[in-house]
Amino acid sequence: MTRVSMNLLTALLLLTLPIGLMACGDDSTTEDDGGGGDGDGDTGDGDGDTGDGDGDTGDGDGDTGDGDTGDGDGDTGDGDGDTGDGDGDTMAACDLSGDGKDVEELEGDLGDRTLTSDKVYQLKGTVYVEDGATVEIEPCTRIEGLPLSGDTPAGTLVVSRGGKLMAEGAPDEPILFTSSLPAGAREAGTWGGLILLGKAPNFKGTDTLIEGLADEDRNKYGGDVEDDDSGSLAYIRIEFGGFELNEGNEINGLTMGGVGSGTSIHHIMVNTTLDDCFEFFGGNVDADHLICNNGGDDMFDADQGYKGTLSYLIGRMNETSSSDPNGFEMDSDNDSTDEPRTHVTAENVTLCGQTDETDDTETSRGMVLRENLTGAFDNIMVTGFDVGVDTRDDFGTEADPNVTMANSQFWGQRTADVGAEETGDDNNDMDFDEDMWFEMGDGNSIPETAPYSVDDCQDADGPNATVTDSDSGAFVAGSDWNLDGMWVNWEIE
Fold first, then answer.
1. What angle do CA 325, 326, 328 make, to 5 degrees?
2. Which residues pair with 316 in a beta bridge?
3. Which of 349, 346, 364 is CA-nearest to residue 416?
4. What element of type H or E holds 195?
5. Could you tell me which residues come within 8 angstroms of residue 376 by beta carbon, excluding any fewer than 6 positions away?
6. Rounded distance, CA 124 to CA 145, Å?
7. What is the pairing mode between strands 244-246 and 249-250?
8. What single DSSP character describes residue 38?
9. Phi, psi values for residue 100, rounded to 5°
């Protein structure tokens, strides 16, 4: 090669060197939309492999452009990647154990505030959300009720008339109300419960004292505001409550007095409570997806002129403390002039009694319907009680009853699948024939082959697949339970 040729080649190489150096310098420090930083390519700014052009060494459309080490949406970035700050796979799971969290005692009037999931809150005595206040509870928050201590009653949360509780959990980020006692010491009645009081009507009056609490205005319910709004409750579990205030007078798992239709209540589980799981004293609120597991007395109780729809209900009877535990206990008043008259619409319900009844001192009933109750029941499954249903007082006639029953199945009761024969003092329903009433209802049956057994319903891990796949009662197609979520726990100790 001639000197001139060598000189020409050297000059060309010197001209291209700065361009190559510039391309190398930008490779791994750019901030675009890539997987560990802001860029879209693998390591650099350009779309080419390393250089400016369209070929293997240019800034064009090659492999090592705006990518994996940027700050954006890639694998290790700030966006939606696997380990990022967004919706990635390593988001921390909800931990309701309370371990390692600060504990804060709550007492008296809470005022306006938010209870956050980074703490455990303990209810000391009767704690209030009073008129005009709003308390919000974040998902995945643990709230414990302290037991009775001297003159301080067991921890209970009361939402007074005009107050609002915004407690909206999620299937796997529920809000937990439980006992402050350690596992192994917790049992029904170790704290109070949750009480909502509103301004909706009941036939007792506009200033009715809720049972068990002191005679103060903040413990009263009632009014004429049918659409009163006490807040929103969703995906909540309430367990080990129902403190006995005095003999025969306990706080329920969830008590609702005069709660209006502006309130939202759904996906609530009450587990292991000393008294009723759910009780509605008047009011107009609808509720759905309610679970009662191991209630001490009645599963679902409605009275004092309650008017509403209860849909998608699961009830399981385990260790009762009452002499007459029932699935439904619903009544109005024997004075039929009292208004409003209780009218319950119940649909898509599964009620399961005990697998083995060994206590002859108690009689369990799938339903007790009495005192001029009115209503319409549809798609109700009842099994495992002593008696399926007991109507009392004036219940209309079999052809024109106060409460209609349709598309329902009763089976597997120990004494009578529907109604038991009543004589003497037990004949308290004006000779109303429950069996005839049931037979005359559209679509009702006592199946020759049981859809499932009481044992299927009482499985330790919850109703098994024979029940949940039955397309009946609470498990009708499209029921939207999310029973595998953390909001459900069937353990009773």
1. 150
2. 293, 352
3. 364
4. strand 194-197
5. 345, 346, 403, 404, 406
6. 7
7. antiparallel
8. S
9. 80, 5
Strands (E), 71-116: 102-109, 113-115
- Residues 3-34 have pLDDT tens digits of 334 443 344 334 444 444 333 344 433 334 43
pTM value is 0.82
What is the rounded average pLDDT of the residues 262-285?
97
CA–CA dist 265, 287 (Å, integer): 5
Amino acid at 290: L
Based on C-alpha coordinates, what's the Rg of the chain?
A: 32
Decide: 169 and 158 in contact? Cβ < 8 Å.
Answer: no
Q: Between 78 and 172, whose confidence is greater? A: 172
Eight-state DSSP code of residue 439: H
Model confidence at 443, in pLDDT bands (50, 70, 90)? very high
Q: What is the pLDDT of residues 337-388, one digit of tens each?
A: 889 999 999 999 999 998 665 556 678 999 999 999 999 999 999 999 999 9
Q: Which of 366, 376, 251 is nearest to 307 (CA)?
A: 376
C-alpha 125/C-alpha 148 separation (Å) is: 8
Rounded distance between C-alpha atoms, residue 72 and residue 74, angstroms = 6
- Which residues 6+ apart lie within 8 Å of 268 measured at CB? 233, 234, 235, 236, 237, 238, 254, 278, 287, 289, 290, 291
Type of residue numbered 345: T
**Amino acid, res. 476:** V
Q: Which residue has the tokens 């966006």?
A: 79
The whole-number average pLDDT for the span 458-468 is 96
The string of DSSP codes covering 338-366 is SSSPPEEEEEEEEEE--S----TT---EE
CA distance 130 to 114: 15
